[in-house]
Design goal:
By secondary structure, the chain is mostly helical. It is 80% helix and 0% strand. Helix 2 runs antiparallel to helix 4 and helix 4 packs parallel to helix 6. Keywords: Coiled coil.
């Protein structure tokens, strides 16, 4: 057994028990003789320090895990946003392609119309004119058919056919007035086709904008729901923070003299635990408040976009009314075949507009 050194030894100069601060080798090698109160005190202190360090490292580990989960959630949200942006860009590219095709088609039609207008006057000028002579020729003698048995049927039938053609179907020459009327009708037909094509394109654009408006409405509702849930989480975190503050205040009260070393170590561990949980909850509260601010800013931007879309929809509705009046005027001038098609398209547009206005009223 190790013996306690005396107070008058060469190494015993500063410590009453001659164990701490004298023999540095024993201190560095953590060798303490048994039965010494200071050695047990040092061991208890080291044990408490190790426990506190262990709890601190555990809290740091939990915080890192929470940060990892948050980053994974952010990555998933960013992936979803990227997919939505890709879909929106694809829809915009398709719409631009359609507009480009329509412009090319209109240009080709305009070129074709100009070519027809250039070529038709030349054809009218080059048409042969029929002149009637002012002098009347004497009538030719009528050709009498032969009554032979061999030629009776052929001559009689051929002459009868010639007389029938001359009486019932006289030869008609091309009238320039009729040609001009045909050209005018053709131009009116082309105008009606162009008007119908423009109405169809306007209808498609309106349908696309209506779909986009509905998508924005759904996004707005989801953002409002998320905002409400985040507000609830914020209130819960505030309540938990207040509870933790109360617990920390209770832990900071001076300990009673009857408490042992173990009770004081447990109190310090609880204090460290509560401080770590308080910091964690405070960080969560800050993150949720930032998220709420971001959602509020996004909601304001979405509401401004909604107002712009509503203005565009009103402008398109006015344009549609004007086009409907123009199409009705053209259909009254040029026939019932095109009026039926245009009226069907206009009825469909009216029904869709009524549905859209009903949705707008419900949302308001």
């Amino acid at each position: 057994m190790h013996m306690l050194p005396s107070l008058n030894s060469s190494d015993d100069t500063s410590s009453p028990t001659a164990l701490i601060g004298l023999n540095t080798r024993n201190v560095l090698m953590n060798r303490y003789p048994p039965g010494n109160s200071e050695s047990t005190r040092q061991l208890l202190l080291r044990m408490r320090v190790c426990e506190e360090r262990n709890t601190r490292l555990n809290f740091e580990n939990h915080a890192l895990k929470d940060d990892k989960h948050k980053l994974e959630k952010k990555l998933t949200d960013l992936d979803d946003k990227l997919l939505e942006l890709q879909k929106e860009h694809a829809v915009q590219i398709e719409a631009l392609k359609k507009e480009l095709r329509e412009t090319i088609r209109e240009q080709e039609r305009s070129k074709f119309d100009t070519l027809i207008k250039v070529l038709l006057p030349d054809t009218e000028q080059k048409k042969p004119k029929v002149y009637e002579s002012p002098y009347k020729l004497p009538p030719e003698p009528e050709h009498l058919p032969k009554i032979d048995e061999a030629t009776e049927t052929d001559d009689v039938t051929s002459e009868a056919a010639k007389d029938f053609d001359a009486q019932e179907h006289p030869r008609r020459l091309a009238d320039p007035l009729e040609v001009a009327e045909c050209v005018q009708l053709r131009e009116e037909k082309l105008k009606l086709e162009n008007a119908l094509f423009t109405l169809e394109t306007k209808q498609k654009l309106m349908q696309f904008k209506i779909d986009k408006y509905m998508l924005l409405e759904t996004k707005k509702k989801t953002l409002e729901n998320r905002l409400l849930s985040l507000n609830d989480i914020n209130t819960e975190l505030i309540n938990e923070n207040e509870c933790l503050k109360q617990q920390i205040a209770e832990a900071k009260r001076p300990a009673k003299p009857d408490q042992t070393v173990e009770d004081s170590s447990e109190a310090s561990a609880n204090k460290v635990c509560l401080e770590g949980s308080q910091s964690e909850k405070a960080s969560e509260l800050m993150a949720s408040s930032r998220r709420v601010k971001e959602l509020e800013a996004r909601l304001s931007s979405e509401s401004s976009r909604y107002e712009l879309l509503e203005k565009q929809f009103n402008e398109l509705r006015n344009k549609h009314d004007l086009l409907m009046q123009q199409s009705g005027h053209l259909s009254q001038q040029n026939g019932e075949s095109t009026t039926g098609v245009l009226m069907k398209k206009i009825d469909e547009l009216k029904a869709r507009l009524a549905k859209y206005v009903g949705l707008c009223i419900r949302n308001e």
